[in-house]
Write a structure and sequence with these properties.
Layout (H helix, E strand, L loop, with lengths): L1 H19 L8 H15 L17 H10 L13 E6 L2 E6 L14 E5 L2 E4 L10 H8 L7 E3 L20 E6 L3 E8 L3 H4 L2 E9 L4 E9 L13 E8 L5 E5 L16 E6 L5 E6 L3 E9 L7 E12 L11 E7 L4
Antiparallel strand pairs: 1-2, 2-3, 3-4, 5-10, 6-7, 7-8, 8-9, 9-16, 10-15, 11-12, 12-13, 13-16, 14-15
Length: 335
């Protein structure tokens, strides 16, 4: 998204220069700029910045504001840009990267970002423009961007039998109801080598106070024989913004936090920069808080942390239950 902003600013400057020297308008450029800037308006978070997928940077709010002032327009109600999908409910915003794997980009397919007002909570690591290229390349390969790692492999083409074939693009379906906005996704990156498909369902309540997720690994329906014969370890990652504090909390197994597949095993308290507390809860067999890095701002590389859910795909157990299917949720206590 930050690259899109740079390109739009340059094209707008070119269009204005073209007019000042008396040249006729470049055909189609005005329409293209209107679409690009409209998409940027839609993607922009309430803190003034942009999503940080694919080692982007949060971007300078003053530059975006200047761009929008130079090309006035309305904010579209729904835009899909480069595979990004968004749900905005009562100030809480879920952004999903469901685009293709980009050469030189990060393996962030089906990864998410979550924002509460101006508070970034779940956030990719990003990559500032002036960041050393070697360091940026190394960060691309860390869990600071990914959603799931299976048997040590992320969603990128590295390690695949045929890397030249590239990486599959996720399938995604958006479903809206009076209660929530839901995304149903699947990705076949590991189908060829490991015989498993990753499915992810995300649900954001209309009141913005609850984000629920279900991650499942299963052999493809068309070829159940391709499943691994042995247990296969996997990790589900949630990189946090450096402004978020994280502590262990007591599990709350009551009607308001009930999960459809067993009791909550682990609870974390996440304190956003504004002081708002969210609870991260899961029935994963194991959870860890792992040191990570953030470099999407203007302050260089900052230390942060990530939540890592750990489990193992068991070919002898039902794919619809733990350990092959993990539930998690992020909830904001109601007043």
């Amino acid at each position: 998204a930050s690259t899109q902003a740079d390109l739009a600013f340059d094209l707008l400057s070119l269009e204005e220069l073209w007019g000042r020297i008396g040249r006729p308008p470049i055909r189609g450029l005005g329409r293209t700029l209107k679409a690009m800037v409209g998409a940027l308006r839609f993607l922009r978070y309430r803190d003034g910045g942009l999503p940080l997928f694919q080692t982007a940077n949060a971007y300078d709010d003053t530059i975006l504001t200047a761009l929008f002032e130079r090309l006035p327009g309305s904010t579209p109600g729904y835009v899909i840009l480069g595979g990004y999908h968004s749900a905005d409910c009562a100030g809480s915003r879920l952004m999903v990267d469901a685009g293709p794997f980009l050469p030189g980009g990060a393996a962030s397919q089906m990864a998410i970002e979550f924002v509460d007002g101006v508070d970034r909570i779940i956030s990719s690591a990003g990559g500032a423009h002036d960041l050393d290229s070697t360091l940026k390349s190394a960060i691309r390969k860390t869990a600071a961007h990914v959603g799931l790692v299976l048997a040590g492999r992320d969603t990128g083409p590295v390690g695949r039998t045929d890397p030249a074939a590239g990486a599959p693009t996720p399938s995604i379906k958006r479903i809206e109801s009076p209660q929530d906005i839901r995304f149903e996704m699947s990705l076949e990156t590991w189908r060829e080598d490991l015989g498993l498909v990753w499915s992810r369902t995300l649900m954001l309540d209309r009141n913005g106070s609850r984000l629920c997720g279900v991650d499942m690994l299963a052999p493809p329906i068309a070829d159940r024989r391709s499943a691994p014969l042995d247990e296969t370890p996997y990790q589900i990652w949630f990189p946090l913004h450096p402004s978020v504090g994280v502590t262990q909390a007591e599990a709350r197994n009551d009607a308001s936090t009930a999960m459809p597949d067993g009791e909550i095993c682990h609870t974390l308290a996440l304190t956003a920069g504004s002081g708002q507390v969210w609870h991260f809860e899961t029935n994963a067999p194991k959870i860890e808080i792992v040191a990570s890095v953030f470099c999407g701002g203007s302050d260089g590389v900052l230390p942060t942390r990530a939540i890592c859910l750990q489990s193992r795909f068991d070919p002898h157990k039902n794919a619809a239950h733990v350990p092959n299917r993990i539930h998690w949720q992020l909830t904001r206590p109601q007043d």
